[in-house]
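User: Please predict the structure of the protein below. I'd like the answer in structure-token form so I can feed it into my own downstream comparison script.

Assistant: Understood. Taking the following sequence of 203 residues as input:
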Amino acid sequence: MKSGTFITFEGPDGAGKTTIINMIAEQLDNSLLTREPGGIDIAEQIRQVILDKNNTAMDARTEALLYAAARRQHLIEKVKPALDKGKIVLCDRFVDSSLAYQGYARGLGIDEVWAINQFAIGQMMPDLTIYFDIEPELGLQRINKNKGREINRLDLEDLEFHQKVREGYTVLLSRFSDRIVKIDASASVEEVFQRTLQIVREK
């Protein structure tokens, strides 16, 4: 039985969640900051395959399965042990990303991708998910302006794909309203940070 708190951070590309999650981690004692896909060696290797800009032939189901595989290894090797020790685990993306990106935007079906991920994660769901909402056009503008940011295969998708990702997250907000809290990510970094910190501290 886990004794820690599992908090995940979600949002379309360019929403600024990685910036905010790093700021939040600095404010919390006994916290562990990690990311998906990645966080541990095996999952980081899978991440390279998924996000490689040369892998344009990758099938949508292959993509979904690779994310689930990376998620399983990360969960068992890093997240669960930290939670068992009573830590606050802050994770940059988790299962909701697969549901929004592969389930909805790729058209595989939210329920179908959810089934794959239930096999991968069992009952290990976040205690709280913070969703950073932003217009896709603004998110992509931010990506293009940030020269130091990793540009991966999903960033190269067209605007329609990113619009579908946001629609997918809207569906998830309705389905998991007891767990997901929405934040307007178009506000200033300081405003988004303060609002996020308030929500995390309340949890």
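That's the full token string. The first strand starts at residue 5 and ends at 10.
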